[in-house]
Amino acid sequence: MPRVDLPLDQLLEYRCTTPEPDDLDEFWTTTLAENDHPLDVVLSRVDTGLTLVETYDVTFAGYGGAPIKAWLHLPAGHQGRLPVVVQFHGYSGGRGLPQQMAPWPLAGWAHLTVDTRGQGWSQGGVDPTPDPDAAAASSHYPGSMTSGVESPQTYFYRRVYTDAVRALQVAASLEQVDPDRVLVTGGSQGGAITIAAAGLAPKAGVRLAGAMPDVPFLCDFRRSLEIASAGPYPEIEAYLKGWRGRGEQVLNTLNYFDNVHLARRAECPTLFSVALLDTVCPPSTVYAAYAEWRAEKEIAVYEYNGHEGGQAYQQARQLGWARARLG
Questions:
Q1: Which residues pair with 212 in a beta bridge?
Q2: What backbone torsions phi and psi does residue 282 show, to the nearest 5 degrees?
Q3: What is the pTM of this model?
Q4: Which one of the listed residues 144, 147, 188, 273 is annotated catalytic?
Q5: Which domains, from first to last, does the chain contain?
Q6: Is 19 left (phi over 0), alpha (psi -120 to 50) or beta?
Q7: What does the pLDDT read at residue 1?
Q8: Integer CA distances (angstroms), 29 to 117, 150, 203, in order
Q9: 320: three-class secondary structure by DSSP
Q10: Cβ-proximal residues to 32 (8 Å cutoff; 6+ apart), any chain
């Protein structure tokens, strides 16, 4: 298969050249301050038919107070406060059905798996999380990538990243959880939200034990738009094909949500993964974010894989990496 990006030796040296907005910190400090309302967490026990895991339906107040849904999975018969893994999902995915879960509770840890507002259509399940602010967005290409993209104030991912920070605060507040052992993870869009949550967590007073972004999305937007040939990035091209002359306006908005910039602000250890044949999240854009991470870091490289990345191989690596940090 032909290579879709730079050779590995050049990927290691690649850096994003797009300057971050001068007011990036002010923008996110203000956004989080405007959404510093009560978490209003509600938990309700769910019968999944599983005997080794306890599951709770969770609702909390996200951006603008909108209700965000999640599942909380706990090892049955747990005692004391547990480490917790907070998980976000890929584009169009969601928390799914309550018996669908990653192996975290079977490893002895709490697992909070969080909906992305306005998505979940490919996963199904129950009680999806709507995006009440999407109705106010102007005309956009179908999907989420261009919803409200005319301005950083109205862009879809402003709400999503804020929801993610609030989810970390929820996890740390739960009586079943040790607030000093909170770890965040996700793949693709979930990987992007993981980076954003880790970068913004210090502004919200959340101290993370680690972050595991897997083949992350929403990094180095300008390069991604140049070389990504599959996945959601082409939604932006399709939008600009109709709205001629809005290119720089849109790119300016996207720059506030570029995880190359937010990665610089993360303070916790990280385990990235990258796939060198990925046409959805080009490897150079993943390396661009990885290069800016200032804390302890490592990256798993899947040389012959596309956007699926390491899958079970990466999951095994994450379990070992998380165990070393969570106990």
A1: 185
A2: -55, 140
A3: 0.96
A4: 188
A5: 8-26+79-90+130-322 (3.40.50.1820)
A6: beta
A7: 47
A8: 21, 21, 7
A9: helix
A10: 162, 165, 200, 203, 204
Collect all residues with Cβ–Cβ distance below 8 Å to 12 and sequence separation of at least 6. Answer: 287
Catalytic residue check, 144: no
- What totals of helices (H) and strands (E) does the chain contain, helices first? 10, 9
**For the chain, which ranges sit under pLDDT 50?**
1
For residues 221 and 217, give the distance between their C-alpha atoms in angstroms, rounded to a whole number. Answer: 9
Residue set of the binding site? 91
The pLDDT score that the predictor gives to residue 83 is 97
**Which helix (H) or strand (E) element contains residue 213?**
strand 210-214
**Residue 300: which residues within 8 A CB-CB, separation 6 or more?**
271, 272, 273, 274, 310, 314, 317
Q: How far is CA 291 from the centre of its chain?
A: 18
Task: Give the bridge partners for 183, in sequence order.
Answer: 85, 210
Query: What is residue 267's predicted lDDT score, i.e. its pLDDT?
Result: 98
User: Annotated binding site for substrate, which residues?
Assistant: 91
Q: How far apart are CA 186 and CA 163, in angstroms?
A: 14
The single residue listed with the structure tokens 């018969």 is 77
Active site annotation includes 278 = yes
- Name which of 220, 198, 216 is nearest 272 in CA terms: 216
